[in-house]
Amino acid sequence: MDGPTADAPAAEDFLRLDNQICFSLHAATRAFNGVYRGALKELGLTYPQYLVMLVLWEHGELPVKGIGERLRLDSGTLSPLLKRLEAAGHVERRRSPEDERSVTVRLTAEGVALRARALAVPRRIAAATGLELDELVGLRERLNALAARLDTVDPDLLAECADES
Question: Which of 9, 18, 53, 96 has its CA 20 to 30 A from that of 125?
Answer without folding.
Answer: 18
